[in-house]
Amino acid sequence: MLLDLGCGAGRLCRIAADRGAQVTGIDRDPRQIQQAVTLVPEGTFDVGDILALPYPAASFDAVICVQSIMHVTNPLTALREANRVARPAAPVVITVWGKEDHCDIRAFGQALAGLLPRAVGQSPGRHPPPLSADGRLERLARLAGLAVTEVGEVTCPFRYPDQHALLRGLLESSLGRQALRVASPATVRRAVLEGLAGYRTSTGGYRLDNTFRYLVGRSPQTM
């Protein structure tokens, strides 16, 4: 049994199910969950918060959290929940963006920054370092009780053939969905296209080169 934290529209669950996995996904966005149910009808999907998972301890053979943990208020709590629901020795796999200057996707965040409210109580000069900072994700994973077995980075180019594909891909992300909750679709689309104009190719598509940092941990061998 595989649990996908922040599963979105269920694309990773679809890939896993096609390879024989029994999949469960959870996301706080009901619209994304509806899409996941349609895409993976044999899976189990729940609307909920990855900071308070509605599953018993030691329920899953593997837990993944792909590009979602950066958007929660307390990453340590999310990691502890992932550890709690993983069976003994089960892998827990987390991915986050790499360092900002290694990710062209930063232009997407910059394009939407003026639309998104600052987190309550957060001042411009006082906030935790990003999870991509050297050693931070590993430290949090260990504090959550996970045994870290592998940490690494991989570079992946994002290619979009046209504006429609760019907007569809980026606005389905957690950050895109946040922006759409506070601004009109037309406003968000305009901000994205203006912010990413410099990444347009000679054929009218877009290319963004991005680095991902990943961590593989293991839940403790015994309960």
Question: What can you tell me about this protein's structure?
Answer:
Helix 1 (11-18) links the parallel strand 1 (2-5) and strand 2. The model is unreliable at 119-123 (pLDDT under 50). It is built from 8 helices and 7 strands. The radius of gyration is 18 Å and the shape is globular. It has a 7-stranded mixed β-sheet with strand order 3-2-1-4-5-7-6, with helices on both faces. With 223 residues, the protein is an alpha/beta fold. The relative contact order is 0.17. 33% of the residues lie in helices and 23% in strands. The longest helix is centred in the middle third of the chain and has 11 residues, at 75-85.
Side by side, the strands of the main sheet go 3-2-1-4-5-7-6
User: Globular, elongated, flat, extended or rod-shaped: what is the shape?
Assistant: globular
Q: Which stretches are low in confidence, meaning pLDDT under 50 for 5 or more residues running? A: 119-123
What's the helix-strand series? Answer: EHEHEEHEHHEHHHE
Beta-strand segment tally: 7
> Which range best describes the helical content: under 10%, 10-25%, 25-40%, 40-55%, 55-70% or over 70%?
25-40%
